[in-house]
Amino acid sequence: MAQLTYREAVSAAIAQEMRRDENVVFLGEDVAAAGGVFKTTAGLLEEFGPERVKDTPISEQAIIGAAMGASMTGLRPIAEIMFSDFFAVCWDLVANQIAKTRYMTDGQCSFPLVLRSANGGGSRFGAQHSQSVENWAMAIPGLKVVAPSNPADVKGLLAASIRDPDPVMFFEQKSLYSVKGEVPDGEHIEPLGVASIVRAGTDVTVAALAAMVPRALKAAEILQDQHGISCEVVDVRCLVPLDTQTILGSVVRTSRFVTVEENPRLCGWGAELASIVAEELFWDLDGPIVRITTPHIPLPSADELEDAVMPSPERIVQNIKKLVD
Amino acid sequence: MNVLMPQLGETVAEGKVAIWYKKEGDIVAKNEILVDVETDKAAVEIPSPVEGVIGSILVSEGETVDVGTILAVINNQDADSGSSEQLANVEKKNSTPELTQNNFIAETLKSQKIINSPESGQSGRRLKLSPVVRRLLTEHQIDVNEVLGSGKDGRITRSDVMAFLDNRLTKPSVKPVLQPLGDSNRVPFDRIRRVTAEHMVRSKVTSPHVFQAVEADFSSVDAARSFHQERWRSDNGYSLTYLPFIARATCLALRDFPRLNGSVDGEALILHKGIHLSIAVDLNFKGLVAPVIFDADGLTVMGLARRIHEISMGAREGKLSADELSGGTYTLSNNGSFGTLLTGAIINQPQVGILSIDAIKKRPVVIEDSTGDSIAIRPVGILSQSFDHRAVDGSYSAAFLHKIRTLLEEKDWSAEL
Fold this sequence. Notes:
The structure holds 2 protein chains of 2 kinds.
Chain A: E1 2-5, H1 6-20, E2 24-28, H2 44-52, E3 53-55, H3 60-72, E4 76-83, H4 91-98, H5 101-104, E5 114-119, H6 134-138, E6 144-146, H7 151-163, E7 168-173, E8 180-183, E9 196-199, E10 204-208, H8 212-227, E11 231-235, E12 238-240, H9 244-254, E13 257-264, H10 269-281, E14 290-294, H11 303-309, H12 313-324
Parallel strand pairs in A: 2-3, 2-4, 4-5, 5-7, 6-7, 10-11, 10-13, 13-14
Antiparallel strand pairs in A: 1-8, 6-12, 9-11
Helix pairs in contact in A: 1-7, 3-4, 8-12, 9-10
Chain B: E1 2-4, E2 14-20, E3 27-28, E4 33-38, E5 43-47, E6 52-57, E7 64-66, E8 70-75, H1 84-87, H2 104-111, H3 131-139, H4 158-169, H5 191-206, E9 209-217, H6 219-236, H7 243-256, E10 262-265, E11 268-271, E12 277-282, E13 288-289, E14 292-293, H8 301-316, E15 330-334, E16 353-369, E17 372-388, H9 394-410
Parallel strand pairs in B: 12-15, 15-16
Antiparallel strand pairs in B: 1-8, 2-4, 2-7, 3-6, 4-5, 6-8, 9-17, 10-11, 12-13, 12-14, 16-17
Helix pairs in contact in B: 7-8, 7-9
């Protein structure tokens, strides 16, 4: 197994799929010659040439529109939106065109494309460059939504997203780009829609996504060592399709459910999970379902303030302790 | 005057009201027994602190409440509301502010745990049960009052119900109804009889008992004992018995056989570091208690003799706290005073072994030595152990008994006195 960073795993996945399928193409702002502003796509231009790896003008609508058109003609484009906040300027294409056209044409056109983006806070980029918007995408029928927490999943899930016959929104957490991890050698692919139990436990099920997974794991360690509370941590990995089986199976064992979300409070993805658990497993619950989220505010850029509002291991510990007491 | 839940031992935080001997409106004399209170360690009769009329009983039978909670209000002549005398005995953290007649109910409600009895809700308390607990109670037809809550404010958790179910599976629940014979007299168990009965049944159900005995020659012990007896009696006012010698030998043997100084926990044996001897003490046919000599292996025969005397007297006079009645790791049961030959004792849970000492009596004994066999008259007694076969096997127990016997017969006991 190789040690790769989260960012290296992005280019490794794209390269793996471009070598395998010549229909895979890649476009975005500063992705080719510069290797991406987060250096996630370094080396792709050199290996695959300017026909398949393209820098675009600074126009998110142009990028998404080109990717949509390319996918309708049979290519498998990967489009990068530099900051996921910018999906707002091209949301008509994403929400109304890409997500719905296969349905509206009764399957005459399909859209095997991936929209990748750097998502989430913790890197001091301020209110318009730090949002965690995977829940926007989750709200649109017709889109698949993926948000990995570690390098191996970045490679495996991005490869699966590229091979998927439908549009996939792929959210990379920018504060995790420098995190290293083991990535299996050779071709690596992880199926979409399968959650992963990253720590087994008996008292509480903790569902987390992307950057909240390492924080939940840290909290679980503290809870076990200092308070004797055993947490089962589930890395949700994909919001659509959602692996309810793994999550519900875990809650049946623990009888308690907590979500850790970077989304602002209202309508974060955890609200949907909480609703499913409440509906399916009401008679198995031994306490209220607890959501730990960022408050419903624009994310501050000051270091201390940004750290204070995002769910921290300490806040997770506090909330879970209160639930289990 | 408020009657409070007393502190029955330093580590005890709550107690259960077992029996009220008075009801609201009854007249009670000072020091008349008012209520029986039980903890997991002991049961105690609480006398009335004053003479007066029972105004209200705030905690009903079967309820468990925090130390310091008001159990009842007695209206007396100098009807001050204070209970400061009692409060002094209650740990500070548990103390209740002085209350007036007007606010005592509100204060009581605040300080009381929500406990496991929904029908005690006449005072406005309501039991909160989580969905999974409700479902399990219904599915298994469990009376909520029988389940003890371990959560915050006494809340019943799923684990509490699961533990209750595990316990129920191993407990016989059939209550035979006896038709009394014509001239028979039904004597209800007092609290100590009830606690003993429950404990004995639980011990027999929990531990597969194996009974094993050795015969020991007490000549060596007897020599040391006789030599010091007169001086001991004049110094201490009571006799030096065989028991402290046997206790000493048991402590030394337990050091070499740590698995008998343990407790079974699920599929594990917990080995206790300290050797804390429980000594079974008969309360003149009115019950049995087993006060504890902590770190007994640090005491000499003389030290053990004094402690055994102290705790036996303390037990008979009812002066021991709950802390002194629990925490033992091995038990000695001395049954010899009526000349018994041997006794199959029941293990004192959660321990794994109990040693019974029966009569030590002069008998003819065949002595084998290099000059040939001869018959001698020796003080001989049988030491018998009941042990939990989950924890150890017969060979281990036998080796332990052999060790005690060898110590009793061969140790230089005069050096200990």
